[in-house]
Every structure is written in structure tokens, then in C-alpha cells.
Amino acid sequence: MRSPSVENYTFSPKLRSFSLILLVVGLLLFGIGAFLNMQYPARIWANLFATNYYFILIGLAAMFFVASQTIGYNGWFILIKRIPEAMSGFVKFGAVIMIAILAFGAHSIYHWMHEGITDPASPHFDELIAKKAPFLNTTFFWGATIVYLVLWVFSTYMVRRNSLESDRVGFSIANYKSAKVWSMVFFGDICRIQLYCTMALDDEY
Questions:
Q1: Rg (CA), the chain
Q2: Longest pairwise C-alpha distance within the chain
Q3: Residue 2: which of 178, 174, 167 has the closest Cα?
Q4: pLDDT score recorded for residue 1
Q5: Rounded to whole angstroms, how far apart are CA atoms 162 and 156?
Q6: Is the pTM here over 0.85, yes or no?
């Protein structure tokens, strides 16, 4: 069976120049906003975190669609799968940006990272956060964050790689099974992060 031809999208010079202009304008506006809010570092870090997280979620939502169609063995979506796969490509960049933001700004973003927040003798003591100290602590937070990000990045990469491999050599059961396994890993990771968020927000936990 002859392998299907592969077409690669290329940016036109006009579109590339326009994208660079938007990038420069965005960086300039961010610099102005950061300069005007230097006295409110928490606001700067929180906005950076939220913006980056929103873009990561867009990439994850796109991969959620791809993974669900892969597990369900649906054939129609191959006509449009390159679009959500391309959208999920931001996840690896967003993960790096997320780690950088948290490394420098986590203390400003998260109230539970403040000193004395779980110490009953401290004036900053918070009883609710103290009850959640087993998982609302720096060690658990960094461990969980890195594990989630690595699984997101690697599972999206593997699903994408198997998809490209299908284009190169044609469909195979082994290739489909590999894509299905990594799609299930992706779903499992999404469920775990949902449980963690629930535990962090719900007073009963």
C-alpha cells in the first residue's frame, strides 16, 4: 500500500512579518503594564500565570478531543485532526513558561505559601489551609506540578508522533494501540488534576 503524501504548511513572508509585529507589540504592552504595576507584584505574576494557563488549557482541550476520538476509534476526524494536534503543540512551551512563572512568582500567587500560614503560633495562621497542609505544601506542589506537566507534554507528543507515523507508513494496529494507550494516559492525568483541584478548593477535604 502506498503511503499518503505529506503536506507541510509554510508561513508566507507577509504572515510571518505580521506575527512578529504582534509579538513585539504584545511584549511592549506587557512591559508597560509590568512597569506601571511594580508595586503590585502579585498582580503581575497572577496575570502571567492565568494567561499562560488559559493557553495550556486550549491545547489540552484540543488534545482531549483527539484522545477521545482515538479511543473511540472514530475515522471521520482524520479530516480535521491536524488542527487540534497543532493546537496541542503549545502545551510543551506552556509547561516551560509555567515552571518559570512558578519558580519566581509562586509565593506571590499562592496564599498558602506565605510564612507561618500553618503555624498556630503565627499571626498569619489559617486553620483551613493548615488542615490541607499534607498536600498544600511546597514539596507536594512542585512534585505534582512537574509530574502533571511532564505527563501532559509526553502524552500529547506520543499521540502526535503516532499520528504522523500513520501518515508516513500507513495505518497499522500496533501504531493505533500505541496512540490509544497514550490517549488513555492523557485522560488519566486530566482526572488526577481535577481531583487535586477539588481537594484544594473544597472545605471538606
A1: 21
A2: 74
A3: 167
A4: 46
A5: 10
A6: no
